[in-house]
Amino acid sequence: MDRQIVFKCPQTGMNVQHRLAAAADQGTETHVSVPCPACTRLHLINRATGRLLGEK
Ligand SMILES: [Zn+2]
């Protein structure tokens, strides 16, 4: 099933909603590139936690 996550765009500080598509087990890959509508860049999101890479 898909998951709805919310992350804070580090470029604009805006909260961005994103739907993480359910995927088959992709082994050790834990981060996915998410196109950000706020700044149009890609952010790396941890699939397990929904947090940005590097975010405490
Ligand atoms: Zn962004």
Description:
This protein is mainly β and 56 residues long. It has one domain (3-46). The chain has no helices and four strands. It has strands at residues 3-8, 15-20, 31-35, 42-46. The strands form two sheets. It has a two-stranded antiparallel sheet. It has a two-stranded antiparallel sheet with strand order 3-4. It is globular, with a radius of gyration of 11 Å. The N and C termini lie far apart (27 Å). It binds zinc ion.
Describe the global form: globular
Rg measurement, Å: 11 Å
**Strand percentage:** 35-45%
Mean pLDDT: 86
Helix proportion range: under 10%
Cα(first) to Cα(last) distance is: 27 Å
Name the poorly predicted regions: none
**Strand numbers in spatial order across the main sheet:** 1-2
Total domain units: 1
Which series of helices and strands comes N to C?
EEEE
What ligand molecules are bound, each kind once?
A: zinc ion
Structural class based on helices, strands and sheet pairing: mainly beta
Number of helices: 0
| Major sheet | 2 strands, antiparallel
Number of E-state strands: 4
What key attributes describe this structure?
single chain; 56 residues; mainly beta; two-stranded antiparallel sheet; two-stranded antiparallel ribbon; 4 strands; globular; binds zinc ion
Detail the topology: elements first, then pairings.
Blueprint: E1 3-8, E2 15-20, E3 31-35, E4 42-46
Antiparallel strand pairs: 1-2, 3-4
Bound molecules: zinc ion.
Zinc ion is lined by residues 9, 11-12, 36, 38-39, 41, 43.
